[in-house]
Amino acid sequence: MSGEKKITVSVIKADIGSLAGHHVVHPELLEVARKEMKKAIQDKIIKDAYVTNVGDDLELIMLHDKGENNEKVHELAWNTFLKAAKRARELKLYGAGQDLLSDSFSGNVKGMGPGSAEIEFAPRKSDPLVVFAMDKTEPSAFNLPLFRIFADPFNTAGLVIDPKMHGEDLEHTGFKFKVINVYEGKYVVLKVPEEMYDLLALIGSTDTYSIERIWRYDDEPAAAISTSKLSLIAGKYVGKDDPVAIVRAQSGFPALGEVLEPFSFPFAVAGFMRGSHFGPIMPCPQKHATPSRFDGPPRVIALGFNVTEERLVGPADLFDDPAFDYARQQANLITDYFRRHGPFMPHRLGEKELEYTTLPLVLEKLAKRFQKVEE
Ligand code: F6R
Ligand code: MG
Ligand code: MG
């Protein structure tokens, strides 16, 4: 593998306006983005691209050879979002330009509103990977499934029986997780299986910690997740940072089915209505990435590709499978259960998370009416 030219998959996304509320990207915006991607392929900025959406988020999935955080690639994404936002304004779509928090491009979309997950690697004989995209939730929604994919032997049989994952000794076994504290902007790298309990001690607190990267024990990149905190950038509530992730599969990585298996359980995530409620994540095919009930329930799509040096071959719409019907049905039941709590916790988020929503503006009004409790 050494000496070979590396390839990069960049997934850059933004909510730049949607139809009928915070619902779905309008087809004309997808068309604008596809046109820009086609032009960029002709201009040799990127090699290939696939444009899609989950709910009100527009995703640009790009293949190139320029490495991660490349200015040209990021500028291309930024300009594409600008053009699509212009169209959104013309159509008077809802929230037109919402995630474009800066007036001008400054080298990288990070910190400017859009989210990005990028992964650079030396090509193998065959390179299957999955691009996940979620709507109406936050980056730490990937904590649970990523732990199960890369660290839980009850999910990933390969951790036990694949010699490429289960090496001679601990040094040649397992995966490393980069975990970010989103409030403090600090990170730590922990290796499993040795530090599994420490890892769980952090990532179980999904209000604070988010997995941003995963490598195999030999430092081969395995996964990348977008982790921007829009509200911390903007200093006020501007919607959830609906996240994307790239996960490599097969032949020394978890098998495709092991990568998808955690989503057979519709675990609870923060987001949903007004970014202020817990609800189940519903795995769905592209055609059902249309959150409507109570602005949700939160959705996740999974697109499978084979990546060559020149092409993104695919995608396969991986949750378009009756094997996930039961998870969807459970997600509907769980939605009913949570909804019946109305404005009460645990449907509504705790105080710490609500700090970055519109609730504090309401509470401010009451602040002066509070009196000291007598001892
Ligand atoms: C959730 C989301 C929506 C909006 C809600 C209110 O991430 O974006 O649930 O928060 O539709 O939107 P506004 O305040 O724009 O009317
Ligand atoms: Mg929106
Ligand atoms: Mg969204």
Task: Give the topology, please.
Elements: E1 7-14, H1 27-42, E2 48-54, E3 57-64, H2 71-90, E4 115-121, E5 128-135, H3 143-151, H4 158-161, E6 175-181, E7 186-192, H5 196-203, E8 209-216, E9 221-225, H6 230-234, E10 244-248, H7 256-260, E11 268-271, E12 277-280, E13 282-283, E14 299-307, E15 312-317, H8 325-339, H9 351-354, H10 359-367
Parallel strand pairs: 13-14
Antiparallel strand pairs: 1-3, 1-4, 2-3, 5-10, 5-14, 6-7, 6-8, 8-9, 9-10, 11-12, 14-15
Helix pairs in contact: 1-2
The protein binds fructose -6-phosphate and magnesium ion (MG) (2 copies).
Give the low-pLDDT segments: none
Share in helix: 25-40%
What is the overall shape? globular
Element-level helix/strand string = EHEEHEEHHEEHEEHEHEEEEEHHH
Q: What is the rounded distance between the termini?
A: 71 Å
Q: How would you describe the oligomerization state of the chains in this entry?
A: single chain
Number of domains: 2
Largest sheet: 9 strands, mixed
Strand tally, please? 15
Strand content: 25-35%
Specify the number of helices. Answer: 10
Q: Which cofactor or ligand species appear?
A: fructose -6-phosphate, magnesium ion
What radius of gyration results from the CA coordinates?
A: 21 Å
Average pLDDT level: 94
Class by SSE composition: alpha+beta
